[in-house]
Design brief:
Layout: H1 4-17, H2 30-39, H3 45-58, H4 62-77, H5 83-100, H6 109-113, H7 120-129, H8 140-148, H9 157-167, H10 170-173, H11 176-186, H12 205-209
Helix pairs in contact: 3-4, 4-5, 8-9, 8-11
């Protein structure tokens, strides 16, 4: 992993070039955010926004989605990958929110991860975006960029998350996963990264290896 001054420089450059970056998912409540994040697994934010635009017009609460049932929900999300499993999980998730959490999205990790369809990454997104916690959701982009830039050599998302939590300066902790996601989505892409456009290139070990 990089020395502290390099880590600070990476964070500062990411923030400078992406000062207003937040989640690209469209939502108007914590519940809509939760459903959107569940749907976003192995799917793009653009595709999720297309289906939730129509879904949330008629079902924007746990009770309303439960009333749709699995078959009804599938009609709205059938263009999303893994829609059968996601329909089942979302209905079960909504039922648990109603019965166990008084129709509200819980705001602690243990309760969030008790919801069907919610793993550590999804819980981290909700804690960060909905409740302002300094958590880091490690998706494929965060994982790739962290390893390429030398922020982490972790072989699993949890290891990368722990590395980042230990080295990222406090002032950047809340925003770092958004900054890394955008960098991985638009510049440090999986195939043929745009190194010539990258403002981190000079301090990136992957670039300097070439």
């Amino acid at each position: 992993m990089r020395k502290s001054n390099h880590i600070y420089q990476i964070c500062a450059l990411l923030k400078k070039h992406q000062s207003n970056k937040k989640t690209e998912l469209n939502y108007r409540s914590n519940f809509e955010l939760l459903i959107s994040v569940i749907l976003s697994a192995q799917a793009t934010d653009v595709s999720v926004n297309k289906v939730t635009k129509e879904l949330f017009k008629i079902a924007k609460t746990p009770k309303k989605i439960i009333e749709l049932g699995e078959l009804g929900l599938k009609k709205y999300i059938k263009t999303i990958g893994l829609y059968n499993a996601k329909s089942k999980n979302i209905i079960a998730c909504c039922k648990k929110i109603v019965t166990d959490f008084n129709n509200k999205v819980p705001r602690n990790r243990e309760d969030l991860e008790s919801l069907p369809g919610v793993g550590r990454k999804t819980a981290n997104v909700i804690l960060n975006v909905a409740f302002g916690e300094p958590t880091i959701a490690v998706d494929t982009h965060v994982f790739r960029v962290s390893r390429r830039t030398g922020l982490s050599n972790g072989s699993t998302p949890v290891k990368v998350e722990n590395d980042l939590m230990n080295i990222i300066p406090e002032q950047y902790l809340h925003d770092i996963h958004h900054l890394l996601i955008y960098h991985g989505r638009y510049i440090c892409i999986a195939r043929k990264p745009k190194c010539n456009e990258c403002y981190l290139a000079e301090m990136c070990p992957s670039f300097n290896e070439d």
